């Protein structure tokens, strides 16, 4: 029986993942701000569902939740960092508090959870860290600047971390969905555009949820398969839109780099300069 630790379990992909893991007979340490939201699952699955209230921006709470889960369940095989929050609007229009909250929830909390989980997994001989990222960690859309900032940060942190912890038998998976039909968009904060941005590219509504190609069930299924595989991928790019948009963005970026190759090499040390 595999034991999972999942943050942000109350809705969306996190809730779907908890349901599917329980359905396959595994145990889940589910953390969320309101544990009562999982009462229905507790009734069906009994002590295979372990619940704790957790605000992921409180590092002391994160550390305590991990310690309690290990003490009561014995081990954690897969740690899933899923909690996140969206703030959409022109970068200039966001308040300082909105910027700080987005970074605290989407980036700092993910880093701190991983830092506390690594010693736990190392002590037991290994395990898997799953970090929910996004296709937005490779490309950008106007109006999503702070969200992209957090996801690009997540990508860099976990790519470096993966190489550091691999010798301990710890694998890291960055899950990069495209647009998925979840309640994430309904829960996101939308900041009204100020006068200079009204009607511009940062003042557009996201694609309606019913037209998004990704499904919660599809993402959750892919996460479970990857986490339990013998050789999980560092990056798990999911959904057709993510594949097309990310591969296109990477090709464009490479072409731009190649076009400036001569200028890049000219900046090396000891190169003669002609002005």
UniProtKB/TrEMBL annotation:
Instruction: Output the Gene Ontology terms for molecular function.
Output: oxidoreductase activity
Note the superkingdom of the native organism.
Answer: Bacteria
Q: Which UniProt keywords apply?
A: Oxidoreductase
Pfam families, per database record: adh_short
**Entry keyword annotation includes Iron:** no
What InterPro entries does the entry give? NAD(P)-bd_dom_sf (IPR036291), SDR_fam (IPR002347), SDR_oxidoreductase (IPR051911)
State the family named in the UniProt similarity comment for this chain: Belongs to the short-chain dehydrogenases/reductases (SDR) family.
PANTHER family cross-referenced by the UniProt entry: SHORT CHAIN DEHYDROGENASE, SHORT-CHAIN DEHYDROGENASE_REDUCTASE FAMILY PROTEIN
Q: Give the protein's recorded name.
A: Short-chain dehydrogenase/reductase SDR
């Amino acid at each position: 029986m595999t034991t999972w630790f999942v943050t942000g379990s109350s809705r969306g992909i996190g809730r779907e993942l908890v349901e599917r893991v329980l359905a396959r007979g595994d145990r889940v340490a589910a953390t969320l701000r309101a544990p009562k939201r999982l009462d229905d699952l507790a009734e069906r699955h009994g002590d295979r569902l372990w619940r704790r209230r957790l605000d992921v921006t409180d590092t002391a709470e994160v550390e305590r939740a991990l310690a309690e889960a290990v003490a009561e369940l014995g081990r954690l095989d897969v740690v899933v960092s899923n909690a996140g929050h969206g703030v959409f609007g022109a970068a200039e229009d966001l308040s300082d508090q909105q910027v700080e909250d987005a970074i605290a929830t989407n980036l700092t909390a993910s880093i701190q959870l991983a830092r506390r989980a690594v010693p736990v997994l190392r002590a037991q001989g290994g395990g898997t860290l799953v970090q929910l990222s996004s296709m937005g960690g490779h490309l950008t859309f106007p109006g999503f600047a702070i969200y992209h900032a957090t996801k690009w940060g997540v990508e860099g942190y976990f790519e470096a971390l993966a190489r550091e912890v691999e010798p301990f038998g710890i694998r890291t998976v960055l899950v990069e969905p495209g647009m998925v039909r979840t309640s994430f968009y309904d829960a996101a904060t939308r900041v009204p555009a100020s006068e200079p941005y009204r009607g511009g590219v940062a003042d557009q509504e996201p694609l309606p949820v019913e037209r998004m190609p990704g499904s919660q069930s599809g993402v959750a299924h892919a996460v479970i398969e990857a986490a339990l595989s013998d050789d999980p991928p560092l990056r798990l790019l999911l959904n057709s839109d993510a594949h097309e948009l990310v591969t296109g963005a990477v090709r464009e970026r490479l072409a731009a780099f190649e076009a400036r190759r001569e200028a890049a090499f000219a900046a090396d040390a000891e190169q003669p300069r002609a002005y």
